[in-house]
């Protein structure tokens, strides 16, 4: 079996066939081993590069993002895709809260009750609504006595999640 291999100097224009002077005939069957070895070496170099830049790498960026999205205190570390999805939903919620004419907690309560029909489809997932009850609302300037309303709404809208009220409410 004979295969033709093109030199790297050949033009990338696929409209013209390769000229015979720019290709060589190989008399041995195609062997993918050199490519695999090259790929493995490239992967090793990339892993080493990522390890050298670990403090500024993607994993540390995800760790930082996980700190800023609402999570359950007993929850294991979120996967990267779950972190991204939760961050997208949380950012959408925060954007709507900033644009709303209500205080943050009132806005969320009204959305969960269905009283406000905004773009909440982007953030109103059972995952995020359950997590809203775990947010430290005092850090956001929300009166602590009002958390119980949101907790009952969030937990009521996500009954499939087996979690009780947050420990700070017991």
From TrEMBL:
InterPro entries: bHLH_dom, E-box_TF_Regulators, HLH_DNA-bd_sf
Gene Ontology terms: biological process: developmental process
SMART domains noted in UniProt: HLH
Region (Disordered): 1-35
Record-annotated BHLH domain positions: 42-94
One annotated GO molecular function: RNA polymerase II transcription regulatory region sequence-specific DNA binding
Protein name per its UniProtKB record: BHLH domain-containing protein
Protein species of origin: Anopheles atroparvus
Organism phylogeny: Eukaryota, Metazoa, Ecdysozoa, Arthropoda, Hexapoda
């Amino acid at each position: 079996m004979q295969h033709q291999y093109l030199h790297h100097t050949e033009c990338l224009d696929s409209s013209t066939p390769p000229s015979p002077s720019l290709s060589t005939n190989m008399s041995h069957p195609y062997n993918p081993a050199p490519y695999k070895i090259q790929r493995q070496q490239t992967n090793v170099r990339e892993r080493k590069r990522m390890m050298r830049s670990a403090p500024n790498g993607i994993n540390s960026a995800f760790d930082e993002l996980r700190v800023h999205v609402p999570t359950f205190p007993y929850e294991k570390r979120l996967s990267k895709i779950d972190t991204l999805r939760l961050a997208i939903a949380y950012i959408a919620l925060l954007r709507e809260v900033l644009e709303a004419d209500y205080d943050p907690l009132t806005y969320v309560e009204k959305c969960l009750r269905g009283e406000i029909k905004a773009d909440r489809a982007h953030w109103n997932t059972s995952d995020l609504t359950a997590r809203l009850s775990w947010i430290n609302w005092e850090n956001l300037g929300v009166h602590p006595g009002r958390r119980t309303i949101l907790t009952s709404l969030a937990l009521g809208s996500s009954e499939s999640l087996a979690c009780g009220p947050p420990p700070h409410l017991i």
